[in-house]
TrEMBL record:
InterPro entries per the UniProt record, alphabetical: SKP1 (IPR016897), SKP1-like (IPR001232), SKP1-like_dim_sf (IPR036296), SKP1/BTB/POZ_sf (IPR011333), Skp1_comp_dimer (IPR016072), Skp1_comp_POZ (IPR016073)
Function in brief: Involved in ubiquitination and subsequent proteasomal degradation of target proteins. Together with CUL1, RBX1 and a F-box protein, it forms a SCF E3 ubiquitin ligase complex. The functional specificity of this complex depends on the type of F-box protein. In the SCF complex, it serves as an adapter that links the F-box protein to CUL1.
Domain SKP1 component POZ per the UniProt entry, residue ranges: 1-57
Protein name from the UniProt record: SKP1-like protein
Length: 149
């Protein structure tokens, strides 16, 4: 068993095979750098969900269809939660989770308008109206097939 402490100081005990799915934890364990508790820069709520994901993906009793259903439900979240999953997967170096979340994220923003993306990310438009019109004309191909908000 491995004990992992979240950023907000909640401790989780996980099986070794779960920890080994996280390259970051695996490297710490292999290098014998771990004290009794391994601190990670992930909030407890997110870490709990990530551990659930790892349990499902480490459980051989789940077939491919069950895992796919779980994955689809797992990433069926709002933007801020998905970003937390991406950050956790990146920090813990869980390639499968990072790929899953980034694919979902890419699908969320595919064919969306510039305005939608700006709102989603909280980006302020720093172009003048004239500059924006010029860019829209110059790169009209980039705006083809964009959904209405």
């Amino acid at each position: 068993m491995v004990t992992v402490r979240s950023y907000d100081n909640e401790e989780f005990e996980i099986e070794d095979y779960i920890a080994e799915q996280c390259t970051t934890l695996k490297n710490i364990l292999e290098d014998n750098c771990a004290s009794s508790v391994i601190p990670v820069q992930v909030e407890s709520e997110t870490l709990s969900k990530v551990i659930t994901y790892l349990n499902v993906h480490g459980d051989s009793s789940f077939d491919e269809d069950d895992t796919k259903q779980f994955d689809d439900k797992f990433v069926d979240e709002d933007f801020p939660i998905l970003i937390e999953y991406i950050l956790a997967a990146n920090f813990l170096d869980i390639k499968s989770l990072l790929d899953l979340c980034c694919t979902k994220f890419a699908n969320m923003i595919e064919n969306k308008s510039v305005e939608f993306i700006r709102t989603l990310f909280g980006i302020e438009n720093d172009f003048t109206q004239e500059e924006e019109q010029n860019y829209r004309q110059q790169y009209a191909w980039a705006f083809e097939g964009v959904e209405d908000d």
